[in-house]
Design goal:
alpha/beta, globular, disordered N terminus
């Protein structure tokens, strides 16, 4: 039993580190014990102002990607009150606006990225609905409003024309094939042609037989972690389609290219997050075990909370070169460029929020200070709450467990 629990703890720590924060002079997360006996993880919003009010106030709103549902409802209301929100989320290639001043060769590449994204969305639609959409409008009317917003933003090629759509179902012997094709007619917008005038197409295909079992989209490790701890996943709770919300992050191609410079081991980070790697599958099995026990779920939730607060006092992120250089620093550079661009284009804005994971905040804070900003105050929001009684342990056992976890974490982090 002890061996099983030790393996469970080690696996949980490995997964939970994905949500960890970096060391900061002033923390962006903390664990507090309430008079009621509840133990609460709180996340910080730190406001920065520019001397003499030359620029808008910037609010670093530290996010946690899994939390109690009320936290996300509170954050939604808070963030909607700002002029704009620059939010975290590695996005698919093809999602960004296309610069109309690109030459035709660059527009071909941008159009290809959009077509690949459309076919990916069409495949997800098929998995959900059992068939491909009949046309662009059907794809746009997907159940998830975020998908509708994405389709609206990418339904044109780089020359500004709506992609042509063709849906087909073919039956050969006992095999059925369905497909949907999206096409741009190139720079001249005429069928056929060569070079930049050639048609550009991408097709999503599916072959199946009667009686085939429905497919399931694999759950990412963070969704599995949320389920195990009986909390909510940020992407399921937050509405990022509101006007003024900007996905200020790298796209997946940029991230993969940056990580590839650090070797194959660094690329495994993405496989872990997507639930595709062997390690992710082992962790998923462990988390499934946790999810079946309310007491174990509460216990691991408390572990998670303590770990997040502890990591802020360590240099664990700096020990992971690719994590620090790409996942943190590289993406921080991207959001700061978005911030500077937003300030330049919208001089009337008074409040800009950066809604990013707590691990990004020390670097973002440093960048703001270099821009002449000064900290002006903190507010705290409750993200996760555990009553120790829910763990099935008495007060002494809870204290002993938390000390043991702290010691184990410090060993993992090389302290």
């Amino acid at each position: 039993m002890r061996t099983t629990m030790h393996m469970l703890l080690r696996s949980f720590i490995a997964v939970a580190l994905l949500c960890a924060s970096a060391a900061a002079s002033e923390p962006y997360s903390r664990v507090v014990e309430k008079e009621s006996g509840d133990i609460v993880l709180e996340m910080c919003t730190r406001t920065f102002v520019h001397p003499w009010g030359e620029n808008p106030s910037v609010h670093l709103v530290s996010a946690i990607h899994i939390a109690d549902q009320p936290y996300y409802a509170s954050m939604q209301a808070q963030l909607n009150a700002y002029d704009t929100v620059l939010f975290e989320g590695v996005k698919p290639a093809g999602l960004d606006p296309i610069d109309p001043d690109l030459d035709d060769e660059a527009k071909v590449e941008a159009t290809q990225d959009r077509l690949k994204l459309l076919t990916d969305i069409a495949q997800r639609y098929r998995i959900t609905h059992g068939e491909f959409p009949q046309n662009m409008e059907s794809l746009r009317k997907a159940d998830d409003p975020r998908i509708a917003a994405i389709v609206d933003s990418i339904k044109h090629d780089a020359w500004g024309r709506v992609f042509a759509t063709e849906h087909a179902v073919n039956i050969t012997d006992d095999q059925k094939r369905s497909q949907i094709t999206f096409t741009s007619y190139g720079a001249d917008q005429q069928r056929g042609g060569e070079g930049v005038n050639a048609d550009i197409s991408e097709t999503a295909k599916h072959e199946f037989n009667d009686g085939d079992k429905p497919e399931k989209t694999p759950e990412g490790i963070q969704t599995q972690l949320a389920n195990a701890l009986r909390v909510s996943f940020q992407l399921d709770e937050m509405d990022t389609t509101n006007p003024g919300w900007i996905n200020a992050d790298m796209d997946i191609n940029q991230l993969q290219h940056a990580l590839s410079e650090y070797g194959d081991d660094s690329m495994a980070i993405l496989d872990m997050l997507e639930g595709e790697s062997f390690s992710a599958k082992i962790a998923g099995f462990v988390l499934g075990f946790v999810a079946r026990s309310p007491q174990l779920s509460s216990m691991m939730k408390l572990v998670m909370m303590d770990m997040l607060a502890l990591v802020e006092t360590t240099n664990i992120m700096e020990q992971q070169e690719a994590m620090q250089a790409v996942i943190v620093d590289g993406r921080n550079d991207v959001v700061i460029e978005y911030l500077k661009d937003t300030i330049a284009k919208h001089p009337n804005y008074q409040d800009i929020a950066i809604f990013y994971g707590a691990g990004h905040m020390p670097g973002l804070e440093e960048a703001l200070i270099e821009m002449g900003y000064e900290p002006a105050g903190d507010t705290w929001a409750q993200a996760m709450t555990v009553n120790p009684k829910d763990t099935g342990l008495n007060e002494g056992q809870v204290k002993m467990m938390r000390n043991m976890i702290k010691s184990s974490l410090e060993q993992q982090m090389g302290r």
